[in-house]
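WARN no homologs supplied; continuing
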Amino acid sequence: MKFGVNFFPVVDPAAKSATAYYDETLRLVELAEALDFEHVQTVEHYFTGYGGYSPDPVTLLTAAAARTSRIRITTGAVVPAFTHPVKLAGKLAMLDHLSHGRLDVGFGRGFLPTEFAAFGIDMDESRARFDEGVEACRRLWSEEDVVFEGRFHRFGPVTLLPRPYQAPHPPIFVASATSAESCEAAGRAGHHLQIVPSVTSAEQLAAMLTRYRAAWDSAGHDPAARRIQIKYTCYLSEDAAEARRQGEFYERSYIDLMTHAVAPLADSASADYPGYEKFLEKAKNYDFGSSLKANKVFAGNPSDVRAQISRMRAEYGTDMTVSLQFNPGGMAFAHAARAMELFAAEVAPEFTDEPAAA
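OK structure emitted
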């Protein structure tokens, strides 16, 4: 099992400036490579403290690539509905070169009504725009003289420059929050998967993974090539009680900022997002203790977190990479860095054959 580091900036600007967040994130990126984490990744969101410090993940990941040489650079995820595919494919191909082939591209549909409204896009088109955008990028990366005739975009013949560093293209991941159908489609297409257990039940997530793996195998793709990333926030300290105190404080901050961002969902039911209108109710009823008991967040001392990861493996399987957020909200840099060091030294070796970095 491999472990990476996830940067989802759920940050109140009053608690930490954008400059401070970026500076600290890039220092943590350098530390992640020194500690032999497998990847670093970030999201695409706009306007609010719920991810709004990362409106362009490619920009932040380009800076991360410049400061590192081994760790993989991952979008988790970019939203093709918000960018013309020729532009998006070109930006990502550049990043693939700037990182010397370390790029993994996660694509997501987006789900916040304010973001779709700002781009003038109907949320009921999100699935169709997602499918079209991913396919357009894949073709632009892997083919020449591309003529594309889609529902939303028509172009060509064009040949993208630069061609991607990785042939035929960077690994493609599909981010899925709750949709088993999206997971099945990703497996059938041979795309990798990004999932978030905090927004669904263990039973629903297990069913999503079952359909993904079955579709991958039925399509004849190599099982050894399949990659699944599962994302958790991790509060880790030698003092378990202190880790849980941090967890309760920063998870409450996360929920408060998320509640503000998802509030429009209550009035924006969409056929492409069945059940998403209930996100606001779920956020208002959030309880850290229940989330910890349900294994949706990691918190405690190294022994506690090792036990949680063992439980996760038993529930969801061992063929996945765990992407961990160590710096939620306005957490001080020193706390996040210490948690990463502690994880690399006392948690990761339990699940990998690689020794922890000195």
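The chain has a mean pLDDT of 94.
OK
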